[in-house]
Amino acid sequence: MPIFHFKGINAAGKKVQDNVTAADEIALKADLADKGISLLEFELIKEKRRSNFFAVSSRVSSGEFVTFCQEFGIMIKAGATISQCLDTLRKQKFGTVFKNAISDAYEDVLIGMPLSEALRKHKKIFPDFFCSMVYVGELSGTLPETLSKAAKYYQNAQKTKNDAKSALMYPLFLVIVIFAVIVLLMNVVIPQFNSTFEQLGAELPLITQVVISISDFFTNYWLFLLGGIAAFILLLGLFRKTKQGKLFFNTLSWNAPILKGMIRATVISSFASSFAIMLNSGLPVLECMKASENIVGNAYFQSKFKYATIGVNNGRRLAGSLESTGLFPPMLLEMVSVGEQSSNLPQVFDVLAEYYEERNKQAIKKFTSILEPLMIVVMAVVVLLIMLSVFLPMFDMYNSIDQGVGL
After folding, report:
1. pTM for this structure?
2. How far is 17 from 21, CA to CA, in rounded Å?
3. SS3 sequence of 11-58
């Protein structure tokens, strides 16, 4: 239970001050009133907690955030106060950074700050989208429903992300296998055959000469090659974390021939789902647009979508503003236009969210069905080329021997 330091006046008219425990501000006033003390001022004494500096990670996992929303919604529905919910949640087995953020919000709520405002102080943990929904839920008295919707959204978003990652796992495994096969052939098999060819003085075809040159490079400079690859991956990772790097890679993936179908389906599905939740929570269209810029998490989408937000802010219709970005398919634009004309946008986005969620699943399956056989073909071609470089000189030698015997 939190500790408050208060100053007040007792029944004898004397000023008093002390530290007392109370569930919240209301309970503090009630307890002091029972003792005949009129409260003048108070402050919450912050408890000692583990520093974020010693945290293993500063990131909050999607699983933790979903659990937070679910449990918060359940406790609110059961009749618990916001401060009681936060007090319970901050004691859960969350990461240090997340627990400290919840504790900060709890302390702010105790002194009368609205929940949405307390959460906005931790923008890296509680997104604007979530805080906006909580704000509307507070105003409309629908906070339990809002938290349940948020939990469902983040749960679906995490599932979509996991599905996309799973779709990439097998192709990534094939890439590793291809690389391992190449290293084995170049460092073990080819040098042995090269030694044999040199002893026999065989005339080597061009493909064999190229493969042997590559093998020599692998053998003589493998340490530099390994260091170069490690440095390249490190620099690539650092560049990807920058604003320019995110925009570059997101633009590349948005337009990549095989990848773009899955990327676009994932982004549009996320947009439709989040927009539907915000509209159904009571947020105005413009506020939904502003929040959507950061929800999707795709820098290329954000760079284009901001112009749609400007268009809506200038009084343009939503469908026209979305169309001007070139990001959305005609079917979505047509349905949004119909929704605007019929004043039925929330229901329209509910349908769109469900439809594009299914389309996203299909896009992931299609991506996997195309990429897996493609990677197998690439691996087969690489191995075939290397094997040809070995066997072609051998065939030439056998033919020479046969011709010599025939003579």
Report:
1. 0.70
2. 13
3. CCCCEEEEEEECCCHHHHHHHHHHCCCEEEEEEEECCCCCCHHHCCCC
Q: Which of 20, 138, 93 is nearest to 29 (CA)?
A: 20
| Two tokens, residue 383 | 């191995």
Question: Among 296, 280, 292, which Cα is nearest to 351's?
Answer: 280
Return the structure tokens found at 291: 């929040």
Please say if the pLDDT value at position 405 is more than 70: no
If you write DSSP's letter for every residue of 139-177 in order, what string do you get? Answer: HHT-HHHHHHHHHHHHHHHHHHHHHHHHHHHHHHHHHHH
* pLDDT score for 403: 58
- Burial state string for 323-341 with b = 16 or more CB within 10 A and e = fewer than 16: bebebbeeebeebbbebbe
Best-predicted range by mean pLDDT (17-31, 68-82, 377-391)? 68-82
| Residue 367, amino acid | F
DSSP 296: S
